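Notes on consecutive records. When two proteins share a document, each keeps its own sequence and its own token line. Never mix them. Below: protein one.
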Amino acid sequence: MKIITAVEEMQQTALTLKRLGKRIAFVPTMGFLHEGHASLLREGRRLGDILVLSIFVNPIQFGQNEDLSRYPRDMEADCRIAAECGVDIVFTPDAAGMYPAGFQTSITVRDLSLPLCGASRPGHFDGVSTVVTKLFNMVQPDVALFGNKDYQQLAVIRRMTQDLNLPVRIVGMPIVREQDGLAMSSRNSYLSPEQRQSTLCLSRAIRLCRELYGAGMRDVAGLRRAAMELIEAEPAAVVDYLDFRDGATLEPLDTADDTTLMALAVKIGNTRLIDNTVFGEGL
């Protein structure tokens, strides 16, 4: 497994591999890998001749007073997981290499970036779109894999890739959960044992709404009310948003169907957690 830190070396390596006819699979991450990331890497190993993992905590997708400085990092553990999953190249650029002096370009996916996390974190998806475009140019992937836990991010990246005619196939992978239902996230490491128990209100709210939908409830207001009551019964939980949207366009809905996305963001203490489900798909 090769570790590359320089942007120019990564791009030249990728271009050489492409000239040799190699198919590149790519998993971009911010590191502190867990089983959710590993599931992407294992699928990437199946889909490509060369598997590239990037680890880069992207400063331009963090807002003021967010957790950029304390975002968890463990390069040694990350490289161990990468090796176990068959990664060929770990690309670990630094911020100066990614955003050299004078950098002033950004990518905006206008409408999909506005609701849900976009409303709570203005500019976040501009930072995501910009860094992913840059990484695609450096790594030259044929296929890139992202987790469905960040559903809106995946929608934004798919739209951007299509709109800019980028020759990359985007693959979304299922949410990986702990045994008790909590969606795996690097930020789960922030939680105290008591807060960890409080987080279960997210997956319980999703489970409740899926059960209500399965029993025939289609009224979005009723589904939202039931989920809010469950989460608000948890004293440590503060709801950022809990919404039901069209799974493709993220437009708001009054009536749910199999393509409806239920998405929520909840703060437990100082930790903001997100989760989602699409009613027509299994958890």
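Protein two starts on the next line and is unrelated to protein one.
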Amino acid sequence: MSAAVKAAAIEDFIDGYPGDLPVLIVDDEVDVRSVICGCLRKLNLRVAESQTLSRARQKLESGQKFSMVFLDRCLPDGDGVDFLREILKWLPKLTVCIITGMGDSVNAEEAMECGAFAYLPKPCRISQIRNVVFRRYPTLSDSFRNGGTVGPVIDGSRGSETDSKVVLVAHSPQMIDVTLEARKIAKMTGSVLVTGPSGSGKEVIARKIHQGSERSKERFVACNCGAIPEELIESELFGHERGSFTGAISDRKGFFEEADRGTIFLDEITETSPAFQVKLLRVLQEHRITRVGSSQEIELDVRVIASSNRDLSQAVAAGSFREDLYYRLNRSGEISLPSLKDRQEDIEPLVFHFAHAAVRKTGRPVLFSKGAMMALQSYEWPGNVRELQSVVDSAVQGCNKMVLIGDLPKALSGRHAEEASVVGGSSPLLTLEEASDLYILEVLRRCGGNKRRAAEILNIHRRTILLKSRKNGWDKQFGYE
């Protein structure tokens, strides 16, 4: 796809900013309006201000059009949420963000139910204001403007849920080797060990092995040994007879019986006790189990795939894992998975893979900005693939058609310089020129827009105010003459 064609496709898919329509800021606090104005002007957006609901109503009823409205909830002449209901009756597509220092959870829910696009309690950070604008108009975002988008529109078509095949996303040399090793081991019949950090995809590998084996049409049963209390693990895996212990009100099959003729996956096998390891070793040797409370042996045909996030050879050396069980478990071989940070080539394809799955749930196609993808690729991923899947799922469900840096968790997105500034809290640090402009604007406000009077108070030439007004758009904002 050429750059021009792709740009056109993006414009068709994403809502662009509507011309030079201004953003209306309705707040009775001068400082709040000034900070929001400064934030929006840095995005090259025009702004208009009002300190009362009646003045804002006049602007809207006169036919003035606005791209967005930042609306304070508590104003001298009314409640912003009531005004929200009012304006959305005749302008239902208008984007309105409520900002308040007097809010609560009930009011927030009420505002969102009435159609508010966002609800920001004061003090809110400048980055939050920016993110509201970016979420509504993603192409204004720095993470879009600094390079556009990555990949195609994610529409959920790849990897349909009806496809039962296990998808192993492997583009890095390490994971290509893992794929080939899993393919080879799948054709064998013995037990397998899969090791690697938590969240690196050990169960996916286990399912891939099962899928490629002669047992693929039989059951794959997964069991997290670390999540089962020590006193219950034998009952959970091998089953029990009625009355064998308190609570055993009926006979029950264990995971091994459920997996007969198929494959059982024993996750975090190193979390089991030495006493249980002895019993598991016997099951692997004899291919028989005995339910708790019974003396009758049950013959089974089950392939065992075990996993651990620890180095089993070290666990054996430390005496926490039986050596004979270790060798019995890796009869067909041991597959070791790398951390996600050590296979950077897999991150982008994994992002798209998980995004397709998320879009199938939401039904809303998305794009990824280059900035967001760079943030995803530069993160260390301590939680590995599992953490990546969680982040992508959340970002896809929370974004407005395009995943931006602001849609990612703070650990990935970093902290913008503007986060030091807050609206409705402490004042931001400004340049000398910005501080001067704000003071001139404040004097101009108090003089009712009379430039001559303001110039006299400031002891500057009236022409200076005229030039400042044209440069900053004050005349259009307030109708000052």
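For the record: The chain has three domains: 15-141+417-427, 173-337, 432-478.
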